[in-house]
Amino acid sequence: MQGFKRKIVYVTFFELIAVAVTTIGFSLFSDQGVGHASVAAVASSAIAVLWNLAYNTAFEWWEARQAKRGRGFWRRVAHAVGFEAGLVFMLVPLFAWWLEVSLWHAFLLDLGLIVFFLVYTFVFNLVFDSLFGLPASAQPAPAKPPLG
Prior knowledge:
The protein has 148 residues and is an all-alpha fold. It contains four helices and no strands. The protein has helices at 3-30, 34-64, 73-98, 103-132.
């Protein structure tokens, strides 16, 4: 599976799991009920979906221009860290406002989620790629025919 269809399947499965985990985490660590916490989870999911599409498009553009092809450990780590760093800047203010906590508390809440999501993103990508194959940007370049 390649292209836009791959991105839609990826984002859908990733975010369904993310909303469930985020709702539970917010509810447990912010003294908010599941209903209130789920609004923050769904909002953060919507933001994450848009960021995911933009980030993965940019990452694959960069990846396709690299001499070394494939997705080794360090490329997967860089992918996960870059994605999560972008979300921190977008989501901490939202969490502070909606969950009625300080920015510091929101950051600590997000830090817990970041640790989870770094591992989750790495494992999810590994499983997703094994089920659906690597995207074209990470596949080995076709062999060039010999001259002559």
